Amino acid sequence: MTTQANNGNAGHPLAPFSHYFSLNNGLSDTAPSLKRYLSKMAGMYADDAAFRERLQREDTLVYEFHELGVPEAAGNLAFGTSIVYPGKIGDEYFMTKGHFHTILDTSEVYYCIGGKGLMLMENPEGEWDVREFSPGTAVYVPGRYAHRSINTGHEPLITFYVFRADAGHDYGTIETKGFRKIVVEQDGRPAAIDNPKWK
Ligand SMILES: O=P(O)(O)OC[C@H]1O[C@H](O)[C@H](O)[C@@H](O)[C@@H]1O
Ligand SMILES: [Fe+2]
């Protein structure tokens, strides 16, 4: 049985609820997913020519995620699944936009259900890291770290995430500066290299 989140009364405790996500494709059949198509990611990939060429052919679905609308109140947790599809723009793997949390100090956990990939992370102090996703691996994204999921495999990368519901998403910093590193295929393997566009 699946019951929906009670979206009202921010600041009041939610009633208990449960929700279904498929272990096969990460999707829920009881709530719509938010879909991010390639056209929403202009300027984010290093190879602008490859981006334009792909977009002319098709506005590909790069990733989608379930967001249940848990009120952004202190004490609540937001959770759901995220599915990044396999593909590349030039040599750079399909990925999420990535974001800092508006409340910079708030962390997040991702648990990989399917596929293969990396979590790319960096903080304002310039420290960065990549952690591998494979089914069964949980990745802890500490507070202060911007984070981007990257699919380095040939199947959808499916993760389940949980974070403080009032954390907020800061996309502007990544949209204007980018991540310090990008992940590209080199000699058939993923490699984190300096982002030529990083400002
Ligand atoms: O927000 P993006 O960087 O586009 O990534 C998409 C989504 O990925 C994960 O599922 C996060 O937990 C969500 O909070 C996020 O919105
Ligand atoms: Fe996040």
Q: Ligands bound here?
A: 6-O-phosphono-alpha-D-glucopyranose, fe (ii) ion
Count of helix runs: 2
CATH topology-level fold name? Jelly Rolls
N- and C-termini, Cα separation? 49 Å
Number of strands: 15
Characterize the main sheet: 6 strands, antiparallel
Overall 3D geometry?
globular
Mean pLDDT across all residues, rounded?
94
Mind telling me the C-alpha Rg?
A: 17 Å
Order of helices and strands: EHEEEEEEEEEEEEHEE
Strand content: 35-45%
Keywords:
199 residues, mainly beta, six-stranded antiparallel β-sheet, three-stranded antiparallel β-sheet, disordered N terminus, binds fe (ii) ion, gluconeogenesis
Describe the secondary structure blueprint for this structure.
Elements: E1 34-37, H1 48-57, E2 61-65, E3 77-84, E4 88-89, E5 92-93, E6 100-101, E7 108-114, E8 117-122, E9 128-133, E10 138-141, E11 146-151, E12 157-164, E13 169-170, H2 172-177, E14 181-186, E15 189-194
Antiparallel strand pairs: 1-2, 2-3, 3-12, 4-5, 6-13, 7-10, 7-12, 8-9, 8-11, 14-15
Question: What does this protein look like?
Answer:
The protein has 199 residues and is mainly β. It has one domain: Jelly Rolls. Helices cover 8% and strands 37% of the residues. It is built from two helices and 15 strands. The strands form five sheets. It has a six-stranded antiparallel beta sheet with strand order 1-2-3-12-7-10, with no helix packed on it. A three-stranded antiparallel beta sheet has the order 9-8-11, with no helix packed on it. A two-stranded antiparallel sheet has the order 4-5. A hairpin with a 2-residue loop joins strand 4 and strand 5. The N terminus is likely disordered. Fe (ii) ion binds next to loops.
